[in-house]
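Internal tracking record. Fields below are filled automatically when a chain is submitted to the structure queue. Please do not edit lines marked as system-generated. If the sequence contains nonstandard residues, flag them in the REMARKS field before resubmitting.
Queue: standard
Priority: normal
Entity type: single polypeptide chain
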Amino acid sequence: MKIALVHTCFRVMGGAENLISWLARELARRDHKVSVFAGDFCDETREHLVKSGIDVHKISMNYWDPAILPLFLSRYKVNFKGGFNITPVDDRFIIQSHSPRVMKHIGGRLAEKLRGYDIVNAFNFPSYHWVYHAKKAGSEFPPVIWSCFEPPGRYYEGVTQADYYALMEKEPPVIPDTPAVRADKEAVSSFSLVLALSNFMAGKCEELYGRKIEIGGAGVPPVRPVSVKTRPYKKIIASLGRLYPQKNFGGLIRAFGRLLREHPELKKETALVIVGEGPERKNLESLIKELSLGKNVSLPGPLSREALLGFMAESYMVAFLPLDEPLGLVPVEAGMLGKCVLASSRGGPADTVIHEKTGCCVDPLSEKDISDALWRLLNNPDLVDELGKSAREFCLDNFTISAYGEKMEKIYQKAAGKNRAEAAL
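SYSTEM-GENERATED OUTPUT FOLLOWS
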């Protein structure tokens, strides 16, 4: 099959970008002709894709188009100090623009390029709007599948981030009845199929779009950890992710602080290490200082994937307690390493961690519940080992990249076959 994967940008690699890149390479391994279209690529991702025999297409734009020219000109800063010069500015905001005119323009640029494929799989906003406009630009367009990792927060934040607003004790915003929201729902209604990462996200999408959503799932490649130097504690609780409020690291730190206050004997042998980077760093550092946890809580910054895996492998357990998480690959990768995960009982992690069988699930909004669960697991190493072994079996049975590629392959074949059958009528 000729398969086109369309995503906004691969310049910064997060969970979504890694998953799409892994899927592309797995499909190519299965002898499909795979192309990846995006606004930009980091060098490492481009290299990995090209080495796997995948065609990589950076989406070009006509900067003289009236929809693009004002944004193009705004890319430049004029500096009069030390002589007149013009400095180009990062242009990601053009590709990521939610302007209807820009999305229509990019869709028009893609229309002819995508027409010859058997299937087009679009991913995060605004890339699926590009594909929608490409589809509208002419006839004989291939079937389109939207893999919805998460509906656009700019429209549906009150629904997709409900737990976050509960944590902030704020009223979630009402979904606006605007042309942009109506256009988004029209685009989604036009697709042959919509896939969600988890049952949680499928439910959110069905609520928002009023159509049947299927579970696409996810998968990760074989884990190859490398050894890392950890702090001299017998029991390290590992937590990983971008430092954003929705990842709930603040709640985890407060719960850990509560645990140490109630059980001070743990201070000598237990540490919480949160690996990642992001805008919440200063707030988290202030919280650690406020709670006098500097000796037991650290934020070492980002690590490579291999080092992250090594860090998890050498930890006692993993804590993953985000709010409104679409799925979360951390519990999957931890599970494949045979690690017990304390996960959020809300959102996508409920699909990757089975409570009391492959890990433990807890309300991420309850510091007491988190603290009590940590105490129980820290005092039951046999239980932690047992849950970790079960987690490995569960993840190897359900979340390998091979299984994910096979599932997506069948979905593509079914959609393409249905399209050919309808065209023959």
